[in-house]
Fold these 4 entries.
Entry 1:
Amino acid sequence: MTIPVAAPQTLLTATALLGVAVAVRPPVRRGRELRRARRLFADRGAVGARVPLLPPRLREAVERLLAAGRGRRELWCLPAGCAVGLLGGSVLPLLMAGAAVPLVRRRLAARRRQRERDQREETVIELCGSVAGDLRAGRQPGEALAVAPGDALGPPWQAVMAAARFGGDVPAALREAGGQPGAEGLTGVAACWQVAVDGGAGLAAGLERVGTALAADRDQREDLLAQLSGTRTTAVMLALLPVLALLMGSALGADPLRVLLHTPAGLGCLALGGFLEYAGLVWTRRIVRAAGGREE
């Protein structure tokens, strides 16, 4: 008895088309949108994943699985490799998925470090505005710095608050905290503190200028990245075209997975195509990051 495969292949083709549509969505200025969302939902608490229309125990298990998947997203390569291996009748896709796990982990770690860097930069800008406003309202410099929002700066910020509260070397603590990626603006805050701590008004003006300069630099970088997002989107779309071609060939009955995974010519084409695909993505990413002024 022959099992029809048109429906699964059609589903895979529709999924690929949806992925391409998501990849080529119009570029947005993510930094500004995220800041607007944080201000809008600042006091509403974290919202976890909810899976409706399921029995309570099954829903809890699915939510736990989704939470674990968010923590180790690179492991989703393995189920994807298993699915392709079952469709192609080969263990090679699973081995390729296992080899892709460390690469995906490295990429996700780089994105996480970049998010932390952006968060520290935003915190320094908010800190400058908060301390300057408190100084103009009549607070002492140490008191204003001690209550400033700086939790995103991590443990070094605790040393800054301790120095501000107990009369320590505040500029030195600020410079040490400014050694973190994204918190370089604290070195400017330390310089302002060192030359103007005896006069609160002068310190407030200096902090406002530092905050304005940091915000202008951030906005300029975000505008540049928004302009470069078209290049990045084009690269992702071109990278997805071979996958879409394989799915369309399968839907038409050509069975390209059998040729790629079970013939010497297909294995050679698969190896060469995979290498060129990876090299093209890396090359495009380096060009975009160099144009955007991002560090590797």
Note: DSSP finds twelve helices and no strands in the chain.
Entry 2:
Amino acid sequence: MLITLKLATGSILIGLVVLGLKMLAYYLTGSIALYSDALESVINLVTALAALTAVRLAARPASHRHPYGYHKAEYLSAVLEGVLIVLAALSILREAYFGFISPKPLDASFSGLAFNGLASLINAAWSWVLIRGGRKSRSTALEADGRHLLTDVITSAGTLAGVGLVFATGWQVFDPGLAALVAINILWSGWRLVKDSVAGLMDEAVAPEILTRIRHVISTHAGGAIEAHDVRTRHAGRMTFIDFHLVVPSTMLIAEAHEICDRLEGALKAEIEDAVTTIHVEPENKAKHSGVLVL
């Protein structure tokens, strides 16, 4: 968790540096496309702050009011990021519209393009660090922040190419045109981010391949039981919640059934990192005979 907090804090520092470089690039060139790129960096900084808050909140232990913990705070951060991305895109489209109506000549500043290119290289390196770190720590907020930065890198590359075309051809329409394309790409990125985060808030089940692994662990580590049924899963940040019914012989002692449950919980935690398992034990006459058979 300490590494996660360090990455979230690092995103704020990186965001400040990148924002300064891109605003300088816009100031030197007057390009609407570069303005759109700088505006997205403002959003990056705001969402980095939200990600840090979410990561710190998700690290808090469960409480009386929140017995399942605060892990979903990371999904809220990702939803906020998606909404802000959409708002930024709409602002860029507004500027692009006025740029089409009243095109303005750009200042052919090589230093402005160089500053923007340097900012994009920094974002590219940091996005890789965030995505890798987010996957390793299973932090939704960090991985979402990294993917957003990667989108920023791609749009920045297109923006630089478009501004270069304006300087090379003298056609001012390339500048607002590229800004509009950047805005559309940002809108798509924001929609995907909101969609994925809302799925987590709605307790979406784990991926089919992970569910297969869970069912296999139950089948091979529940010796003494008869079957398991109604296996259900959900994500909450980096945590994976698993619950199911375990059918045992009617004559089995409570202590024996409890030992099987302990064994299953340990095996599932070893297979699925940060798994939280809840098992409901049932006597044999309640069996559905339609679940996971024990090998």
Note: Residues 3 and 257 are 39 Å apart (CA to CA).
Entry 3:
Amino acid sequence: MVAEKKRRSSTRTIPSALIYEMWAGQPVYYRGYREVLAGKKTLEEIISCSDLQGVLVALLTIYIGNHINRKKYLLATNEIGLHLAVGDNLGHDLVIFEKEKIGKLKGNYFDVPPKVVIEVDIKADMTDFPNKADEYIMRKSQKLLDFGVEKLLWIITGAQKVYVINKNDPIWYVVNWSETITMLDDCTLNIKQLLDDEEITY
């Protein structure tokens, strides 16, 4: 409750450009937004991704695009907005939709659940989440499962780990990114192998 009050009162002075997501009508800001307010960083610095994040998202896009049935599925990337409900808007690195559920693209946030969501690291400020990264990941993942997402893969580059969260499995796993993960149908994913095949050092 204290965190919610603090967040609510701060929205009057914090520019909307620093809002990363909206959760039940409450803003979740970009990590580093306080440095922007203090003049120590620019907006571009905090919304931009690291070299490893950027390369990994690009490699994932190419790999997944070549290994899924693109007649059946649609892959989208570049901080895709997902509208869950009024006041609930989330951002994502990569999402895979079933084409038959989407219909015509309208130039707005998607409002149907993706089949798969893939995240690379965390862009949100986690000050208001008591257990920081773990709580943010758990709460955001549960929101997405409740919305109808079937599987989430959350890649943490610093620890070289992957959270594997499946709607039909009550056990949420954390594995080394050298493990081969079944992502969708017969498409598997091994993050370390993906980077090694491109001869990328990190």
Note: The chain has one domain: 49-197.
Entry 4:
Amino acid sequence: MDTLQLFDAFVLGLIEGLTEFIPVSSTGHLILAGQLLGFHSTGNTFEVLIQLGAVLAVLSVYFGKLWHLLVTLPSDPKSRRFVTGILLAFLPAAVIGAIAHDFIKGVLFETPMVICVALLIGGFILLAIDRMPLNPRYRDIEEYPLSLCFKIGLIQCLAMIPGTSRSGATIAGALLLGTDKRSAAEFSFFLAMPTMAGAFAYDLYKNWSLLSVDDAATIGIGFVMAFLSALVVVRSLLGFVSKYGFAPFAWWRIAVGAIGIGVILAYR
């Protein structure tokens, strides 16, 4: 096993965990960082499979709430509606992701310019939304109407373009549909669980025969680092967003996107 490749997996796992739940596109950052490091994964599976580490971070932080939902699901209509809302929001990504999987992995993942442009455009959109005088109607994720959940799920599908950001799309969409910033970020956490777990399972199914022992080692290191770094983000993001909003993330996207485009054009 190449020590340098293990180090790259360590760095990329750290990046995944730090960026998965903030609206800057973890996949976009992973692909661009991988290009800089000269890191190549079999079938581009590394970037998808290590996301499960970040999902487990959410599960550990919200274990109490998830357990309460599980226990009360048979008897509490509020719990059933919330779980139904998450599943409805997940449904569009599950269908479109399965249909467009090969195009996304084979074409979009291999086009850095698309990622940089998406980062740039998404940054300006997020900055504009953050400055809008919005009047939130929904502040509790368990009170979100099912129709609202489904609409957020449709908007999440934009994140299949790497650089868009799954959390960025869901948060921005939720804000425009009448939620407050804190609950929008929290709903994005819960929606991440089935979405990323589904992507993990489907990608593993599609590429299982291509993976080797060396791939398992790099994925394992990236997985652990994604889990540890995502723990820090999940525990601190809601408080940060409540205080500072999403402008810092928007400016970061704009900076990374602009630098990336400049580098790509300079080396053409």
Note: The CA atoms of residues 13 and 214 lie 16 Å apart.
